[in-house]
Amino acid sequence: MSSIILITGATSGFGEAAARRFASEGWRVIITGRRKERLEALRKELEGLHGTVEGPPIIHPLHFDVRDNAAVEQAIASLLEEWKSIDVLVNNAGLAAGFDTIQDGSLDDWNRMLDTNVKGLLHVSRAVIPGMIARGKGHIINIGSVAGKEVYPKGNVYCASKHAVDALSKGMRQDLLPHGIRVTQIAPGLAETEFSQVRFHGDEQKAKQVYMGMTPLSGDDIADLIHFAATRPLHVCINDLVVMPTAQAASALVHRKG
Ligand code: NDP
Ligand code: 8X3
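^ thats the input. predicted complex w/ NDP below
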């Protein structure tokens, strides 16, 4: 049987690109997110491209909000035997909400970021780790950010949430050491996905400006790194990968043309 990867936030951006990449490389992929219709469309597309009519399903959609621990537990528990042995968990679901000084930030934005990026990652990990421990192997790939390595003006709470992902990746690696479970963090810089549309609450103009005059990373760039980390020999763990566009040297240092 081929390996199984569970990707949170597979309805868009990095997660969707990773689902496409792993399915094309013959993996079985559990795709998750809140937007059910996108999961279903992706399942149909990828099974059409990479599945066979008589063969077993290669894509399994699971629909839940990572903030809702009961829903996460129920979704993971609902997996049929042939989908239970998750080899790789990609904790990718996340967002930035708002771009305000700390004195102007909205409580709702702060809760969304902390509940999704930190507690959501913990909920899913907590549901998946026991199976990995029982099987004596597994790989957790956390999508952090350069915002987890440095802090930029108006990044405050988003940066705090990604610093938490940085710390949790280190903590997981230490605690899971005796169980043969690898833990990788991938920390990207500017990447054009739906990220900025979400951050600016749907303001397309503001979202576009983030990437003006430079070539940002793409979902495929990050999918490539996730795939690289997941396919190293079992004795090799990529601990931490920081990746930026060539036109970016730090969060607030971007070289733009024109
Ligand atoms: P997108 O907005 O394109 O994708 C975010 C994904 O997360 C969507 O599939 C969304 O699915 C899912 N998601 C968000 N909230 C929840 C939730 N509560 N429950 C379940 N799923 C959720 O952004 P990216 O692909 O860019 O972002 C992916 C990760 O990468 C995030 O953790 C982000 O912080 C991080 N990152 C992004 C960078 C960038 O510049 N783009 C750079 C560095 C890190 P749905 O809405 O269907 O639930
Ligand atoms: C996303 C990259 O620079 O917007 O995590 O924080 S940044």
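The mean pLDDT is 97.
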